[in-house]
Fold this sequence. Notes:
Layout: E1 4-11, E2 17-20, E3 27-29, E4 42-49, E5 57-66, E6 71-78, E7 82-87, E8 96-99, E9 110-118, E10 126-136, H1 142-150, H2 159-166, E11 181-182, E12 189-192, E13 201-207, E14 213-220, H3 231-239, E15 243-245, E16 248-250, H4 255-261, E17 269-279, E18 285-296, E19 299-302, H5 303-311, H6 319-328, H7 333-353, E20 363-367, E21 373-378, H8 383-405, E22 412-414, H9 420-433, H10 446-456, H11 462-472, E23 477-479, H12 503-517, H13 524-564, E24 571-579, E25 583-588, E26 593-597, E27 606-609, E28 614-617, E29 623-625, E30 629-638, E31 643-648
Parallel strand pairs: 3-5, 8-10, 11-18, 12-19, 26-31
Antiparallel strand pairs: 1-2, 1-4, 2-3, 4-5, 6-7, 6-9, 7-8, 9-10, 13-14, 14-17, 15-16, 17-18, 20-21, 22-23, 24-25, 24-30, 25-26, 27-28, 28-29, 30-31
Helix pairs in contact: 1-13, 7-8, 9-11, 12-13
Amino acid sequence: MKREFTGIFRGNEKGFGFVKIENEEEIYISKEHTNGALYGDEVLVKIIEEQSKKGHQEGKIINVIKHERDKIVGVFQKSKNFGFVVPDDKKINTDIYIPKKNSKKVKNKQKVVVQITKYAQGNKKAEGVIIEVLGSVNQAGVDMLSLVKEYNLPYEFPENVINEAKAIKQEISKKDIPNRLDLRKKEIFTIDGEDAKDLDDAVAVEKLKNGNYLLNVSIADVSYYVKENSKLDKEAILRGTSIYMLDRVIPMLPKELSNGICSLNQKNDRFAITVLMEINKNGEVVSSDVQKSIINVTRRMSYKEVQAILNETEELYAKEETKKLLQECSKYAKHFKLMEELANILKQRRKVAGSLNLDIPESKIILDENGIAIDVKKYDMYFSNEIIEQFMLTANETIAEKFYWLEAPFIYRVHEVPDLDKVKELNAFLWNLGYKIKVTQDTVHSKAFAEILDRVQGKPEERVVSNLILRTLKIARYESENKGHFGIASKYYCHFTSPIRRYPDLFIHRIISKYLETNYQIEKEDLEKYKAMAIKYAETSSECEKVAQKVERDAEDIKKAEFMQNKIGEEYDGIISSVTSFGIFVELENTVEGLIRFDDLEDDYFIYDEQRKILQGERTKKTYKIGDKIRIKVKYADKLSRRIDFEKVFEES
């Protein structure tokens, strides 16, 4: 039996970790057996125990084959004869020793980037040299800059990419107009968030004589400007996606394109790719076509404005503002009413099919002019958001199905059926609440999840059940092979609607253009070339997406902790969102989450029941479970550690 394996080490702040072996179970590594390995390192591990107390095989790292990183971002701590850097990433469980000669000009408590010169071995800490000082820990913008450096994000575009972008004219080419469907006389609208700058989708709805609807979804024709193998294209492949970090964005494309000629700006002629869909009263697409087009957006609208027009009241704006908006848009109101009508039909069809409506609120973090968090609240969602979501889902499905049957080289958005073991684990918890996901013939359908979500709607446990279902589901990813999308109960799905900010969408546009330009007669050589590209870019885009999600989540965690730093001692009502072996997590109404450790619960010893996910006091028999309401006081908050701690508020007897 093989006793040594190669794998990736995943450590944590407590020092121990696991080595992930391909097609094998994880191997537990105790703190004393990490041999200086850092999170993400490729290591050679030797099995020392087949079944440890932790329930896993246990091993020791005997060699680090390849270090994942040689630069670390952290806080410099200065002492008399030397210094050390405490990493921002708490999964790196070692400080970096800095000799005095390497830190003479660095001040205590400054954020720095350190180059590792010697990796940790045995009891010896890693050693490094400071190569960049980012600023003091409380200096404006340093927290977000630290994330940029920590993840080695491409914050600036190379000069040759910028030059290529600037060389593109900010007006459309007249010679290409005759080859396109001219929709400039159609009333068409962009509907986005109020602060959106890259507008890549525009919509229009008409009622046909037969009672059906004609939905036109026009998407910016980015591939017209970003040519295959250009410097812009190669840079977009590397970035994979735009990253949104609250007060800043790291875009996939330079602003000359993303905010300029590619953006569907009001009253400007723009090239697009338009999907025309005839939809019946049951929400079924009965016919469709895709064409290269030229459009001119009638008016840019925000979600809030459209909702105010649909409501026809002043509940979203002040009375005078609403009156002015309704006057300005009175001639367009019929369009938005028709959109609302169609979106409701599409939404109902999805509900019947078993699409999962995971109503998990997004956080809206308000920053002041210095980038400091001054408020955290739920992101306002209106039915107007739903209108655009339903239209984009329908366009994505229509394009995916069309090109699936053409057997085209393609990138699909794949979301597979969840593992049955995870569903059983979820059911063990749901059973306590009186619910159960139905499993039939060793498989599960999205409708079974949808039924539970429908039943918990409006109940105290709704958010908790939604979160647990989300954790049970697999992570969506990009693939060159169509495997369907479980979450939206769709056989065919892709990302086609955001080519300004996602590379798979841009690649799909290039494929569509190729088919349209050749009248669907693709050369065999091109087919093989694009099939290989689809496989490669699906994988790289999925990896880029993972990094983007981590960065965006970290940015939120930092700012939420920053906001709560001056709320120490304040009391809030919350709901238990998670129960663990070391305490309970509580989520507040404003989406902030914090941990109550056992010591801050009761004067009792608590036993954790993993299967039922509850805590029970040994003496008092007091229980804490997911979904319980609880009153808390903020005990600790620190943006450096991205940590928020609560304590329970006890009722006076």
